From TrEMBL:
The gene is LOC101944351. It is an enzyme of class 1 (oxidoreductase). Keywords: Endoplasmic reticulum, Heme, Iron, Membrane, Metal-binding, Microsome, Monooxygenase, Oxidoreductase, Transmembrane, Transmembrane helix. It comes from the Eukaryota. Belongs to the cytochrome P450 family. It holds the Pfam family p450. It is a peripheral membrane protein. InterPro entries: Cyt_P450, Cyt_P450_E_grp-I, Cyt_P450_sf, Cytochrome_P450_fam2. One of its GO terms (molecular function) is oxidoreductase activity, acting on paired donors, with incorporation or reduction of molecular oxygen, reduced flavin or flavoprotein as one donor, and incorporation of one atom of oxygen. Its main location: endoplasmic reticulum. This is unspecific monooxygenase. The chain crosses the membrane at residues 6-24. One of its GO terms (biological process) is epoxygenase P450 pathway. GO terms for cellular component: endoplasmic reticulum membrane.
Amino acid sequence: MEPLGATTVFLVICISCLLFLSAWRKRSGSGKLPPGPIAFPIIGNTLQLNTKNLPQHIDEVRLFSCEKYGSIFTIYLGSERVVVLYGYEIMKEALIGLGEEFSGRGSIIVILLNGERWKKLRRFALTNLRNFGMGKKSIEDRIQEETRFLVERLRNTHGRPFDPTLFLTHAVSNVICSIVFGDRFDYEDKKFVTLINIIDENGKLQRSPWTALYNFFPTLMDYLPGPHHRLFKNALEFRRFVLERVNMHKESLDRNCPRDFIDAFLIKMEERKNGQSDFTVGSLVRSTVELFVAGTGTTSVTMKFGLLILLKYPEIEEKVHKEIDRVIGRSRSPCMTDRSQMPYTDAVIHEIQRYINLVPLGLPHAVTRDVHLKQYLIPKVNFDIKLVCAKILLF
């Protein structure tokens, strides 16, 4: 038993030394990084952070250690090294002053595309969304049409209390559907309901500690049971839904008259089919999923919080109503040309967007090359930059 005990102790010492060496090499080869709390090997600062409310806890860490760390500091989420940028000034310097260098996307479970390929597809998506109505009258017509369906649903509540969350999600998603698929869905359509349920469930899962742990320890969490596996099952089901629509578009495609985003993408694929291209069915499906995920949740949640804020401040709601009655009246739908005549309503909408802190941590960024920020050097390697906005109270 004694030799076995000595062997065990020797192995523990060796493993500990290897872990310490690994952590030391990671720090020593990472440039002059911003300071941060001491991290343990493998688990990093995980035990020091509240994964149930990570944004609030990072906020507390920064406020508690303001003099020690300032507006830029380093933490370790598991073995992943992360620089936290906190506050308006430092993020302006990074994202605007060094916009190209900070344009990479960090590794995280919800990110689907990255790198130069993502940039090309993003440019194509933005161009074609404009062509199919983004910022033009056609998108205005689609929004007005969907608004009429939404108002009818609200009327059908007959003045009873109700939760508007699902109504708003359906309306926003249907506007995206009209641009991407060329048509809207009936609110009771089974496939549409499934689509919304997937978006809603994945939104909740992404905010859960299970997903935070997956981002910290992806290899380990792949083998552990838990609700985080639902993210992948839901994503697969969503892709099947989109792929089904893509195949339907292929059968009825008119290259001289694209109807929507999918048609435009399929035409681009035809143009590039003889050479290596980033425009494939796979990238079309992923781009479409990203449009839904990015657009549906953010817009509907903003509208929901806007309603809650106006309920809390009825005097502001009253001023908005007066401006609406004066400029638009009650006999027609609002349109974009009304915006210039409604400065108060325009200002309230912008303040709502600023105030609600929609994505507390922002999406992770990664530097595209070695970058000097303040007196620190942030190396290119697989290095995430977490952007944390300081919340400024309103009213």
